[in-house]
Amino acid sequence: MPDRQKILKIVVFFLCALLSGVLYFFSTGVEGIRPMVWIAPVPVLVYSINGSRPFTIVCAFIAYFIGNLNLVPYLVKVTPLLVIIIYFILVSSVFALTIAGFRYASRKYNNIIPAIFFASAWTSWEFLLSLVSPHGTAFSIAYTQSDFLPFLQLASVTGLWGLIFFLLFVPASAVMVWHCRDNVFESLKIAFIPMVLFFIIFYFGFIRLHQYAHERTIHTGLAASDTSTRYFATKEKDKAIAVIRAYQKRIDLLAYEGAEIIVLPEKLIGVTSEYTKEITGLLKQSAKKNRVYLVAGLNVSREEGDRNLALVVSPQGTILCDYDKRYFIPGAERGYIRGSTPGLFELNDIKSGIQICKDMDFPRWSNKYSRAGARIMFVPAWDFTVDAWLHSRMAVMRAVENGFSLVRCAQQGYLSIIDFRGKVIAETSTTGKPDALLEGYIFPGPGHTFYSRTGNWFAWMNLAFIIIILAYPKVYIVLFKRRATG
Fold it and tell me: If you compute the radius of gyration of the chain from its CA atoms, what whole number of angstroms results?
């Protein structure tokens, strides 16, 4: 082979790896240009069709490894470096194998099957990872589409798994159309399927976005202050009471504006058994004085085990719900008692729920609330500033999946009021604000969706497809006898 051809192949190899890597780098992670994720896999998919298997695997590995580097500034704050490296190698290896699977299928079949295989393989991987990961569905590519509302409505039917599938199915289908460009009829057949599916998805999305609630709205208030986060684990009574009294003033302001329920952040103050009654007493006093429901997150230190809890106080000053956080940050939140029961309460005869921050990273936990009929979810939270958008949008996905509206109050993050379709009704950042306040109106969601009733059916369907293909390769021949030519 002439040297010029070898050089050209090397250039194409690195160009495809770098281009996909850069596209993933700037479209995924905690922030980015989200529409770019739709085309991110195209360069490595195109390379795989004519590239050798070893070079295809290496090309895809490099691309996804580069793409994941956008997470380093965030992950080094919460995760050991060795764990980060292992994670990057693992996910990049899986991506490389899915690309290799696409390459194999594209050489056997001039139809839509390679695109389905590629999308199903990655969807199955993210689903299986979510079942064992202590971070649930964190960093799923589905969250990049949380502001793309017509497409986001698909989550109410398939969960986030449908979004993952179509984010990969579309670019892979486009590559197969290009691959079969010499056969116009075959190319049109391949293009027809994603075009029809997307018409259906967007038609459904626009219809759902124009659903209107006919019940009365709830006037909601949120308050947070990043300046007092340093006292989240204090055991000094005077400091704890000072923080609560500062929050009492914020509660008064929001109540004066007409708020019926006020939500405060996660771990807004450290509490010990010595002064627990005084802190809860002050919260009850504010609720009763202003005739409001009050949701507040406390960090309680006890000999028998710490509690990251959220209280719901009624306008009469009684505690309606005492909820323990279910999911914790590995390492950073050791020693806490894990909650085992969803937090549910009645808000003016509307079934409502309460979760705390990371709980909403796990679809199966939110699904329990939907099955119990929760129509509004109140979420005290604490983010890390840099992940403010991403973590708030992970919670938005749970709202769309399960048909409940969402009120999320995060220190070092966003104060958000979002309806069951993922529409942002009101939102503000706490960054640079000693007192971040937000108030707005929320209406209850339906409290159920097709997804909340049927569970992860779409994810299991993808997994079954991949298992059948891997375990019984002859199924390809039985179902799809038309093989690729050349």
Answer: 25
What's the per-residue H, E or C state across the chain?
A: CCHHHHHHHHHHHHHHHHHHHHHHHCCCCCCCCHHHHHCCCHHHHHHHHHCCHHHHHHHHHHHHHHHHHHHHHHHCCCCCHHHHHHHHHHHHHHHHHHHHHHHHHHHHCCCCHHHHHHHHHHHHHHHHHHHHCCCCCCCCHHHHHCCCHHHHCCHHHHCHHHHHHHHHHHHHHHHHHHHCCCCHHHHHHHHHHHHHHHHHHHHHHHHHHCCCCCCCCEEEEEEECHHHHHHCCCCCHHHHHHHHHHHHHHHHHHHHCCCCEEECCCCCCEEECCCHHHHHHHHHHHHHHHCCEEEEEEEEECCCCEEEEEEEECCCCCEEEEEECCCCCCCCCCCECCCCCCEEEEECCEEEEECCHHHHHCHHHHHHHHHCCCCEEEEEEECCCCCHHHHHHHHHHHHHHHCCEEEEEEECCEEEEECCCCCEEEEEECCCCCCEEEEEEECCCCCCCHHHHHCCHHHHHHHHHHHHHHHCCHHHHHHCCCCCCC
Question: How far is 10 from 1, CA to CA, in rounded Å?
Answer: 13
What pairing do the DSSP bridges indicate for beta strands 414-418 and 405-411?
Answer: antiparallel
Helix 53-68 × helix 81-108 angle, to 10°:
140
- Tokens representing 22? 């850069």
Measured CA to CA, the distance from residue 355 to residue 344 in angstroms comes to 9
State both tokens at 428: 């503000």
Q: What angle do CA 479, 484, 486 make, to 5 degrees?
A: 160
- Token pair, residue 474, equals 């002859």
Query: Can you tell me which residue has the tokens 């459904």?
Result: 204
Task: Give the model's pLDDT for residue 108.
Answer: 83
The first and second tokens of residue 484, run together, are: 């690729």
pLDDT of residue 478: 54
Spell 19-47 as b/e; 16+ CB within 10 A means b: bbbbbbbbbbbbbbebebbbebbbbbbbb
Q: Using 70 as the pLDDT threshold, list the residues of the chain that sit under it.
A: 1-2, 213-214, 472-486
